[in-house]
Amino acid sequence: MSNINIRPRRELRIATIAAAAAVALGLCSAGTANADTVVPLPGGAITKTLADGTEVTVTMTDESATVSPSMGSTPLHRNVWVSGSAKVEISGGSGAEGGSIEPGYIVGCQLALGGETGADAGIGAEWKGAAEPAAGGAGTVSIGPGEAASFPILDLEEADDFGGESHSGEHSFEGASGSVTWADSTMGVEGCAGYAQARSYVNVTVDTENVMSTVTLWGQPFSIG
């Protein structure tokens, strides 16, 4: 089993990230960003059977978010620390050769990111038609009203074929199981002049002797103010 633990350094916090406007969301279970607010999240699990009979189970546990006020006190900035653990187990079929685990978050500004968890939860009709700006540098995403962005948790470095640095948001594993744990990963959101939501996802790509397939587990949406 291949495991990885991610614990980013606190210096990734950005001094200019400010508190969000306190707008409650009916679909979410979280509080607002007027003070540090710890949001426990339920995680989830899914099991999918691939075409060759291979059974893939993805679970997410110990998921939480801490919505933190910033020093600037402007409604355009938010800061969130996220934690969780994802695990994949593969059985049956033609035999597991390994795969990869990619955890991350979808962040939306004035968008509904859906309300259910699991494999078929999706991310809401509004998101599907929204713009998809890329994540910004230094642990931030920049989005405006009606926009959403993906925020990868992992940033794994390795040498490429030419001796330079290569970065990846996927943790590779061999065999029938693998896991990833992240703790207090900083996620800054800039530019959203309205309510903002986030929800976790875990993309697991599995290789067997006959099939390559990706299984996605969605977490529960939560408000970040």
TrEMBL record:
Entry keyword set: Signal
Entry annotated with the keyword Signal: yes
InterPro entries registered for this protein in UniProt: Porin_fam_mycobact-type, TAT_signal
Signal peptide: 1-35
Membrane-spanning intervals of the chain: none
Superkingdom to which the source organism belongs: Bacteria
Protein name: MspA protein
